[in-house]
Design a protein that fits this description.
homotetramer, about 220 residues, mainly alpha, Heme Oxygenase, Chain A, about 0% strand, globular
Chain lengths: ~220, ~220, ~220, ~220
């Protein structure tokens, strides 16, 4: 897997330790995006849920800014909130609009259990733990989508807009920045040998659990319609 | 339904407004407890998850004490933490022990997605909202189990210990106390006409969402083993 | 006081109910800024503490975004975090730099008790309460500085840069926007008759306590050096 | 200082690193308690504020239970909430009642800035950080009072009830338990060499800041009346 994008040390470690990582990044839903065989209805079902997901995700990144300990961390987290609101969310709104789903319909969508599970797990990790717990819970989504985007780049087909949004250099740079933010935050707090601490296992479990919930999110997209 | 137990005004209203209330309190899993036809393996699967659930639930009640605004609220919430640790959790430990599942095995259990969804939803409601949001998210579990216990009282059968724990007057009194705590908290903050405020719809939605997640919890018990 | 700026209904009410409002907005420190007789050492002492204050304040606005319930609230709060980081904080850095205090010195400053009291009161109000509690605790600073800026406009003197920063139409517009955000948030949650609810007294007390702590902050500037 | 009580490793280290530790534990207010020369009015002023302090302190220990990661931590923190509500708070109520200050008067007391500073600092440390941050912020009060009680034991005089409450073996045992809870929590998360990590400096600063705010609390008692 030498062609995996490099988003830093912590991510490389956590990814290797998360049993469900491949089930997440190679889920049948993802394969359907790649081959173009994913039914449109499933994609739209996913997209509506993902719109609600992003609202919670923006809240989680805002919480990261609240829990930050340096001005640089505050600025990085706040910039991500802005990126979500200005980059990812409008993409969803546009694609849905073209499919006849307007913003009111988007916002009236009921959150699916798999959506509640994931978003609330992340937010609660942040509230109950500290900045690092939140980063470990946020990482599978941000960086996993980056990895999927990089792998699916150039696939073409009906979902090429979605693929390009995450394959795009702008998003890839965001992933590298988030990876660097996490690595720096770990070293600043726990020292360069952080991976040997019991704390590292806690954080790895956070990442692994969030990864499991990502699998559930794709599955929800595949099952629903 | 004139034989429903009376746990106060807010509960009566929220229950009536939660579309999934009957799906929760009359779930096939509950019927299996009543008739005794629920396979033992499903019950033990449920019980292991419920043990992990109660740890998170104790944390949520502790959070309620942290978010309380009066000494009486702090004391009521803290007493519930103690009741959970001394009343419900030992029951689970004993039943599991008799089935050959020791405490180490209990604590090594991986939280199922339906468990994560429910517990994190409750905790996050508490962290992001205030004391009332937390109460509305906690109520379906505490009071729903009371309602189920009252209905199944005297059913006998292999699950009579479980049924009696919630049919028991001690647990019923806890339900009335929690109901009164919620009613008082609402009136103290929002006035006696609280049900007419937009805030009431938010709280009702919290209750309804938590109720939906209770359905998922029973279903997890029925599906898994 | 017909020449007071109009930052909305909630602010007008809370200001009228806060016993220390005039002690805050007409504090001897403020008068010293207006007349120019405030010793430079006190101003710099204040500015260093205020720089640390703004870091906590940015965290508090980020928390507001995390606790928001609509996308519009998330965006408004996130925009304020950006405004603080890009508008107010650089002003402090520049003024301090001209006085020979570099960023490292700024960040090495120990938070004074009056600073800890105010910032942690605001953050804790936000964590323990909900979005409205946080707004009520944040309002005295944002809007009080706007009111002071509007009153001191055109005073000239050695502190005219500071005065202009808050008298400036950009800052005045921010104040009107924040006032509108608060009014809308109140009506959305508590209805148009919110001021008659017990909840209104809680929020008014939050505002009044934060105002008391603002007085302590000016006094810290006057006492220290 | 070989006669200092032993409340564990973390406390010994943090105490040694907190510049204001002696200013706190040997404050003129404490000396006044020891010699009996502290004016009654100052003691009662302190006691009224301390009653309000304990309500916030109970909330902070409840938050610790919410942020705990093991059942043992939840139980220890919840037991402390109960101890505060049943041990320390009634002592205050009784002493105040004998001085003609009833519970209503106690609860109507306005929190002094020094009180707000300390309690909100502790709560915010807990909300923004994790369980360890909260423990480091809580420790100076719990354990400092234990150290003062042990030192003043047998002083007699008009304040012997207060002194005995903290010199008492029950309170001393609580201090040893809290010290052990902290040591175990540190090792469980950060490993046995935790003191060498950058994280240790953060925690030590939390403890040192809370100690500074304890000095302010005594000073408030001495100044007010």
């Amino acid at each position: 897997m030498s062609d995996l994008p490099d988003y830093g040390q912590a991510f490389a470690r956590w990814r290797a330790e998360a049993p469900a990582w491949d089930a997440y990044t190679h889920h049948a839903f993802v394969e359907g995006l790649r081959t173009g065989r994913l039914p449109r209805a499933n994609f739209l079902h996913y997209l509506r849920q993902d719109y609600l997901f992003l609202i919670q995700f923006a809240r989680a990144w805002a919480l990261a800014a609240a829990k930050a300990e340096t001005l640089a961390e505050i600025q990085a987290a706040a910039a991500t909130v802005q990126a979500l609101a200005q980059y990812e969310m409008p993409l969803h709104v546009q694609v849905c609009a073209r499919a006849g789903i307007d913003t009111a319909a988007l916002e009236a969508t009921e959150e699916a259990p798999a959506n509640l599970a994931y978003t609330r797990y992340v937010l609660e990790a942040g509230y109950s733990g500290d900045f690092l717990d939140l980063m470990a819970a946020l990482a599978p989504c941000v960086l996993g989508y980056g990895e999927i985007g990089a792998r699916l780049k150039g696939s073409g087909g009906p979902y090429c807009d979605w693929i390009n949004a995450y394959a795009d250099e702008g998003y890839q740079r965001l992933c590298r920045d988030v990876g660097a933010l996490i690595d720096t935050a770990l070293i600043t707090r726990l020292g360069s040998d952080w991976a040997s601490l019991p704390r590292a296992r806690q954080l790895s479990r956070r990442f692994a659990t969030a990864t499991r919930l990502e699998v559930g999110f794709w599955q929800m997209g595949l099952d629903g319609a």
